[in-house]
């Protein structure tokens, strides 16, 4: 490898295009809704946020517009799409959970099922954390993951999230089973320290 090889050249040599993150568009839903092929994977992604599986792109867009009747402050809710030269490859939402807009929560984190295990999730999360801390100026980012979704859990840990103890365990009744939720977070200081090491 050449010492002065650019990031773009490295990506091209690795056979991948550079991943980018942009605000979600309604047309993205037609891709995202196809990435969960069965109800278990759908529920690992969305928990109980939709009544039934499968959903349509119209269902997804309606939820993002009105969140089942709850008012969404569009200055508080940021659906994002990851893409490269091949098209849409990932998606997540970001929303502030406090009035001061210091705590940002990630949700609906998903990567195209045909591209899982190839580093897209890690790269999308790194871009999302950069956006969260450097653009939105969050002080902390949180997320929840089911304890039966270890690939996602380890992906979050890889980008700097750490598991935190909750006073009360969160559980969801999903597909006739009780699923435990693990809570993870990363603070600004941890993000900045990690960034200097990379």
Describe the model.
By secondary structure, this protein is α+β, with helices and mostly antiparallel strands. Helix 5 links the parallel strand 4 and strand 5. 23% of the residues are buried. Strands 1, 2, 3, 4, 5, 6, 7 and 8 form an eight-stranded mixed beta sheet that branches. The two termini are 19 Å apart. It is built from seven helices and eight strands, in the order H-E-H-H-H-E-E-E-H-E-H-E-E-E-H. The protein is globular, with a radius of gyration of 17 Å. About 3% of the residues have low confidence.
Sequence-ordered SSE layout with sheet pairings:
Layout: H1 7-13, E1 20-23, H2 29-32, H3 39-46, H4 57-66, E2 77-84, E3 87-96, E4 103-111, H5 120-135, E5 140-146, H6 150-158, E6 162-163, E7 170-174, E8 177-187, H7 188-197
Parallel strand pairs: 4-5
Antiparallel strand pairs: 1-2, 2-3, 3-4, 5-8, 6-8, 7-8
Given the structure, what is the number of helices?
Answer: 7
Order of helices and strands: HEHHHEEEHEHEEEH
Shape: globular
Helix content: 25-40%
Radius of gyration: 17 Å
- Profile the largest sheet: 8 strands, mixed
Number of E-state strands: 8
* Content of β-strand: 25-35%
Kindly name the structural category: alpha+beta
Query: Roughly what is the average pLDDT, rounded to an integer?
Result: 90
Tell me the span between the first and last alpha carbons.
Answer: 19 Å
Contiguous runs where pLDDT drops below 50 for at least 5 residues: 68-72
